[in-house]
TrEMBL record:
Basic and acidic residues: compositionally biased ranges: 155-172
Pfam families referenced in this protein's UniProt entry, alphabetically: Phage_rep_O (PF04492)
Domain of life, per lineage: Bacteria
InterPro entries: Phage_lambda_VrpO_N, WH-like_DNA-bd_sf
Record's protein name: Putative replication protein O of bacteriophage
Polar residues biased stretches: 139-153
């Protein structure tokens, strides 16, 4: 008998495919027939046609003539890369098909103004940037870029015709700094990105978003927020940070010919550089920044860090979180050094510790929460008070060991990581019944009274009876009160 062959019948797929049917009930775009016919007859490329239809959908589709529409939004709608969206949009602005209104765009209804006698062939900004970067890579090793030399040698071919807003004879970076510095007032990052991009394009430059670079500071690829070009091969990267510039922004910008950091909210009256990269403010400098210098902010930040390390028994080295709070913004003045110290003390004395560790500066200096932290810290300080003399831990522990040798504390084990350490500081910051700040002699008297109280009878059989237990907030008041009452009874004093 021959071999048997099993034949599996091939059946058509039975998967249910949902039919998509366009329906006016799902929405429609109201557009003049003459405008729609003009778009159909226009000599546009496929990309340009997609872009103008996207603009129509985002404006007339919502009953508006203009709207803030980003390149990435159009890219998501059309599937065109945002660099090509930027190119197509700029070409149609030149043709008069698309017009701008500040940072908003829309379709020009005056179809007689449309002009198609403009060349459709031009290099994209990505191509210009890549050529520029390739040339830079061939002439200089990319280990270190000398930003200052690059800027000095980067001149416009025709300095007598700088772009709108530029400075005659200046580098592209200088022109963009002059154009953008102090011109924006936005709380949201996306709105500022849109506005900066629109102003750069309106000034006659080309601009793309999220330009890829090889390293963002950790060995992984990164993106520069904006990359501008003057159309002559000169490029300049722009990183937009919130209050203080980030180290990784400087790392990314060093990988292009030139660049600078635009700070959205931070207000510092003097110009400075971060690792050779200029830092400027995006919004108009307000009166709150008068007299504020970066050197003063750095000095106070270092002092705040030293205070934190002393209070928390830590060895942190980065003072940048404190700089963020000391720098004024468009909505508030900078916090003072005393404000920072008040919050640090409140956190160390009251916050519950995780793994016996005090909250780190990054957690304390949360911009959106610090105002509430400061309010709670000031209320706590008003009720708690603070002894003008720092708590002399070693002296008090030595006094305890002298009076209670059987319950002595090992000195090198008494550190800020120990809960009783903070509890002793809280007792020290309290006042006596006469309203005076406590002194070492007062604690010595308290230890004498506690040692003579019935609590300490048979103390050798009470292993739980330690200084740590006595200093707990829930125990200290009752233990001390019991010792005073028993002392009065022995003296025959009626309370």
């Amino acid at each position: 008998m021959g071999n048997l062959v099993t034949v599996t019948p091939i059946r058509p797929s039975l998967a249910v495919v949902e039919r998509q049917v366009a329906d006016l009930d799902d929405g429609y775009t109201r557009i003049a027939n003459e405008l729609l016919e003009a778009v159909m007859a226009a000599d546009l490329t496929a990309r340009q046609l997609k872009v103008v239809l996207a603009v129509i959908r985002k404006t007339y589709g919502f009953g508006k003539k203009f709207d803030r529409i980003t390149n990435t939004q159009i890219s998501d709608m059309t599937g065109i890369h945002h660099t090509h969206v930027c190119k197509a949009k700029n070409e149609m602005i030149g043709m008069g098909v698309i017009i701008t209104n500040g940072i908003m765009i829309g379709v020009n209804k005056v179809v007689s103004d449309w002009n198609f006698n403009i060349s459709q062939h031009s290099e994209t900004l990505a191509e210009i940037a890549n050529k520029r970067l390739a040339k830079s890579a061939n002439t200089n090793k990319p280990i270190q870029l000398n930003t200052k030399e690059t800027i000095q040698n980067t001149k416009r071919k025709d300095p007598s015709k700088p772009p709108k807003g530029g400075r005659e004879g200046g580098s592209l970076r200088d022109e963009l700094i002059t154009l953008l510095e102090g011109k924006f007032d936005f709380n949201k990052a996306a709105a500022l990105h849109d506005a900066v991009e629109a102003m750069i394009i309106d000034a006659g430059y080309e601009c793309i978003r999220e330009f890829r670079v090889a390293d963002r500071g950790d060995g992984r690829p990164g993106r520069i927020d904006l990359l501008a070009s003057n159309g002559e091969g000169d490029v300049c990267g722009i990183e937009i940070d919130r209050i203080t510039p980030r180290d990784k922004s400087a790392v990314k910008l060093k990988q292009v010919a030139s660049g600078f950091i635009l700070v959205r909210e931070g207000v510092v009256s003097d110009h400075y550089e971060l690792d050779g990269i200029p830092v400027i403010s995006a919004h108009p400098l307000s009166s709150s920044s008068d007299g504020v210098s970066r050197d003063e902010i750095i000095k106070n930040s270092r002092e705040a860090l030293e205070f934190y390390n002393a209070m928390a028994g830590a060895k942190c080295q980065d003072y940048k979180p404190f700089m963020t709070l000391l720098a004024p913004t468009q909505s508030r003045d900078g916090y003072s050094l005393s404000d920072l110290k008040a919050v640090i003390k409140w956190v160390v004395m009251t916050w519950k510790r995780r793994n016996d560790s005090v909250a780190k500066p990054n957690n304390i200096c949360r911009v959106t929460r610090f105002d509430g932290y400061l309010s709670d810290a000031l209320v706590w300080a008003d009720g708690q008070g603070s002894n003008p003399v720092p708590c002399p831990h070693k002296e008090i522990i030595a006094l305890w060991n002298e009076k209670f040798p059987g319950k002595s504390v090992v000195m090198h084990e008494w550190s800020s990581r120990r809960p009783a350490y903070r509890n002793l500081a809280a007792v020290w910051n309290g006042k006596t019944n006469q309203g005076n700040w406590r002194e070492v002699k007062h604690l010595g008297q308290a230890f004498d009274l506690i040692g003579k109280s019935t609590l300490f009878s048979g103390a050798e059989n009470k292993p739980w009876l330690t200084l740590d237990w006595i200093l707990k907030p829930e125990n200290w008041g009752s233990v001390y009160e019991q010792a005073i009452n028993e002392h009065r009874q022995r003296k025959g004093i009626i309370a």
